[in-house]
Amino acid sequence: MNPAKIPVGVLGATGMVGQHFVKFLEGHPWFELTWAGASDRSSGKRYVDATSWRLNGTMPEGVRSLIVEDCKPGNAPRLLFSATDASVATEIEQAFAQAGHVVVSNSRNHRMDPDVPLLIPEVNPDHLKVIPHQQRKRGWKGQITTNPNCSTIVLAMALAPLKKFGIKQVVATTMQAISGAGYPGVASMDINANVIPFIGGEEEKMQQETQKILGDYTGDTIRSLAAQVSAHCNRVPVVDGHTVTVSVAFEQKPSLEEIIAALQDFRSLPQERKLPSAPPQPIIYLSEKDRPQPRRDVERERGMTVFVGRLRECPVLGYKFIALGHNTIRGAAGAAVLNAELMYSEGLLD
Ligand SMILES: NC(=O)c1ccc[n+]([C@@H]2O[C@H](COP(=O)([O-])OP(=O)(O)OC[C@H]3O[C@@H](n4cnc5c(N)ncnc54)[C@H](OP(=O)(O)O)[C@@H]3O)[C@@H](O)[C@H]2O)c1
Fold this sequence. Notes:
alpha/beta, 6-stranded mixed β-sheet
């Protein structure tokens, strides 16, 4: 172990999102993966024996011989990323927070709790202020912070710079990649040359999470944005990258140029502090008439940037555009690691 680095662990390290954490943390300048937890199917085995590696490239060398542990507090490092199955994440994450761990979770279980930050470091870093209230209310020495659902984060990042124009109504339609369904995900007989117009629970998550993320910290809780948000969620035969078409009504009537400038000029704390996983430009506006596209754009900027394009007038709500983000990087592991980097820079890991 490198003594100059902060030891970190991953709960659910053997699963699909867990593997993305392992890959994303490889070579991280601040964090070193020293601990991996999973179910009793895996505990006691070497990571290499417990895990069917599903990602491109080979399993990082440093993790292969880690012995997988039970997801129970004991010898785990203080900072833990969580990618445990949603059916068990509530109890596991709470047990670790109770025992003094900082849990940075990718699971949906605690996202909508009013005392848990649903964090995008560029968008609502002030929501971290709710943590002391969380600790007092729950009697925890540790804490839980979450990142949004993989399609919500694309929508919320694209809307955040436009909040100053007064967002009134949003209609968002997704075209979501199959990697968002985990492994083995959607059967090939269902998704090949097809569109599936239903993803269980996804529309509700996009609607409620977007309102919470764009909402305000009020002292001991987070008050959701009053804007109406309607989501249509579809699974499409794309491997990586969630595309979202968005129509939006504003209280003010900004010009097209003002909207593009707001998107392009958007910078925030992660950029000011040069956090290791922060993209230099969180949102890139593409002026080509047929971009962004998942195959051409989603891997750019290490998968941490949201690409926006095709801003034009909408005869119903005022304006419409298209946004694209990497669902397993910006929408999962990369999002959580950037959350932890912000928390470290705020002194919350001391
Ligand atoms: N897939 C995505 O793109 C995506 C995106 C955003 C969020 N998420 C969320 O991330 C979480 C993980 O998703 P996933 O697709 O990675 O699932 P997955 O591949 O099924 O992995 C689940 C992980 O949880 C562990 N686990 C299962 N039961 C457990 C138990 N009783 N105690 C301790 N650990 C247990 C598994 O360990 P074993 O290997 O030992 O069974 C595995 O490491 C879920 O909450 C999901 O909603 C997924």
